[in-house]
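Predict structure. Chain length: 172.
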Amino acid sequence: MGYKKISKALKKKILKEVEETKEVTSVAKKYGVDPSSIFKWKKYGIEPKRREYTREFRKQVIKEKVVKKLHVQECGAIYGVPGYLVRFWEDELVEEVKEEGAAVHCGWGPKEILTENGKVRGIVLKKCVSVKDETGRFNPQFDENETMTVECEHVYLSIGQSILWGLSLIHI
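Prediction complete.
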């Protein structure tokens, strides 16, 4: 049937006729609307309700996406939010972090944590060249020759990553 804009007055007329005749399908056919639209109007009302998303809610959605490694559509489905909004909020939060003076370097993975006298002095990162293998599974591949060193006093390991103790990656 396709999308067509229906005035509030026509929606009221359709709902009234459905109430009187108790026939959704025939009324929908008569006015050229999808019967599911009529059910939505009955359940949620004629006016679409605009949801206001608080900053805390947006952060919770993005946190869930990152922690559970969800696609934007999956995360949106969990919270009843369109996927494009999840992507927008993610970009919005990155911009907020940048405004606060933090550097964001996407596409890099840890190679080595630099220490001096038992204290962290920096981290060496290696360039990520691909995130998934040919089967589509998560399997990041790195270019060991392209590195970046970031000086720092603290390194926080992200949720969702694990440490293999005993590797030369961690020098404590």
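Summary: The mean pLDDT is 79.
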